[in-house]
Amino acid sequence: MRETPLSNCERNFINRAIAEDTRLDGRQLLEARPVEIHFGANWGCCHVALGETKAIAQVSCDIQQPKASRPNEGMLHINVEFNPIAAPHFEAGRQSELAMQVNRQLEKCFKDSRCVDLESLCIVADEKVWNLRVDVNILNHDGNLVDCASIAILAALTHFHRPDVTTTGDSITIHSFAEKDPLPLTLHHYPVCVSFIVFESGQIVMDPTYMEERVGASQLTLGLNSYRELCSLQLCYLGKTSVTADVVPSISPHAANYANKLVTQIRKAAQQDVEAKYNKEDRDVCRLKECITFGKLTAMTKPKLSIKLAHWVAGKSSPKSDMETSDFQDEDDNIKTLGHGSAELITNMSKSVGEGGPNTWQASEESSDDEIEDIEILQETKLEKKVLDDIDLGGDSEEEDTVTVSKNDIM
Amino acid sequence: MQNQLETTEEEECVLRPMNCELNQLSRPDGSAMFMQGDTVVVAGVYGPIEAKLQKMMHDRATVETMFSPAKGPPCVDDRAKETVIRETCEAVLLTALHPGMAISINVQELQDSGGLLACAINAACLALIISSISMKFTVAAVSCMIDRESGKLIVDPDSTQIQQARVTFTYVFEGIKKDLVSCHTTGRFSENELMESLEKCRAASQNIFDFYRNIVEQYAIKL
């Protein structure tokens, strides 16, 4: 689907509102949306919500041969996927211009600023190094994807632990998490991206929403770390604008303060979760559950369910066992006949499914009605005692269950 | 023999806790974050939307599905999951109501600890319910496995149990007559095992349908 065009009304409205220092969501011009970070049960899995913009990051690692130019350094790959779940105009499996731009911006911020100590990821120089891969999937696009993705990447990298490795001579042993405690990554500094939009009127807005991004005249993204150092800078003219010359100096102190605050929040969240994981009791607790705001009308939880299900007896059962089953269900006389009927159904027990032999499914379709009747009685008697009582078995023959409902059936 | 008889009587099955939030995402027409135990997926549905010209069908809506894994580019296995989800959703939706349009169903894996396909289908069904696209019936997917050593059938296994699996089954049932809609299996198994697991999952699927009903009731009453 193509992106819905923005009407002049909307454009003018937002421009006028911004000129009067008003934002549609009630924020100040230089105010960011709240950030929520949740970690999953795996190392390096994190869900970030920047207002309504949501992303999930997952770090994974494997061992590869290093690049010839850098034989004693590990590798870091950053990949941001713009799936159609985030917005209907994103196309699956195709890198759009926006996706490439965001990918490059994040690479500049994380790879080119050399925040991850890649040398510590070397196992055997020139032969084997760790290859880190960060996958970011955007879940909901409400503007400022770069910031949201950068927070997700930083949080995931801070949280990630790789398996320990020992080298003895030529052999390399990768220890599982049960054998040896995993090791965290070494980060030299913690960069995040902070984005701004400059409007035609010259007003600067921080952390733009989707609407503001579309109306804005130029876009500015700063990559900053907690030491107030600039790691990357991207200035992108979306349309004509009169004032841009003094934009960078005017907002950079504010951006640096915000970046510092953000990094503190990310590191605190990651540290809390890592500590909780080190305490063995709640090692596998999945904190993604906390993404769900319970108490909402559309949210629901159901505790672990223990249910009693009847064991389905196939025709395998010998007449002897049927006699015994009828002992404790003696109110049903039909039970005795089912032994013969169901024994008839499975004629070639020697052959299991998929191992050749004629298809017995069709055969049972053509077989006498009372055979099917028998199976149903069996099921009914077994199902009677269950918690779940409203399963309609009547009228269904067995073959029907296994037919896949295709679209042609309805047309 | 005696031992076998005891198991034929009644067997206890445990379904992992289910958590769900509907319309968590602001962009999709309907979305659901669904958790079964530690398996977490998010599904988002857009539709009916404009179809691409090459995919447009004159008599019904095209169903586009996208399953994206948490790590790495989608592999063959993920494409297979995508196909199962698409074919299940095609059976569920009344596509003839929206000719020339598209319905886009997107599922994102957040965390996999067993029964990912079942969880994805359940999330997609919840997202379809909340997006108020006309459906023929609701569907519920239940996964189960057979243990390699004991041969025991486990309904809704978690990631540690599934490592011991000889066979895994995922069944999708429709909500009216509990007929089978689709089925995905791995490993070798006998006909008996298939039928036994089918019946068990069919019975367990009722819990998921109850869950759907409860969550819809919760907000439908207030409206």
UniProtKB/TrEMBL annotation, chain A:
Pfam families: RNase_PH (PF01138), RNase_PH_C (PF03725)
Listed SUPFAM superfamilies: Ribonuclease PH domain 2-like, Ribosomal protein S5 domain 2-like
A molecular function GO annotation: mRNA 3'-UTR AU-rich region binding
Entries under Gene3D superfamilies matching the protein: GHMP Kinase, N-terminal domain
Keyword presence, Cytoplasm: yes
GO cellular component, one term: nucleolus
Lineage: superkingdom: Eukaryota
Keyword check for Nucleus: yes
PANTHER family to which the protein is assigned, alphabetical: EXOSOME COMPLEX COMPONENT RRP45 (PTHR11097:SF14), EXOSOME COMPLEX EXONUCLEASE RIBOSOMAL RNA PROCESSING PROTEIN (PTHR11097)
Family of this protein: Belongs to the RNase PH family.
Record's protein name: Exosome complex component RRP45
TrEMBL record, chain B:
Entry-linked Pfam families: RNase_PH (PF01138)
Gene Ontology process terms (BP): nuclear mRNA surveillance; poly(A)-dependent snoRNA 3'-end processing; rRNA catabolic process; rRNA processing; U4 snRNA 3'-end processing
Gene3D superfamilies: GHMP Kinase, N-terminal domain
The organism's place on the tree of life at top rank: Eukaryota
Alphabetic keyword roster: Exosome, Nucleus, rRNA processing
Entry's family note: Belongs to the RNase PH family.
Record-given protein name: Exosome complex component RRP46
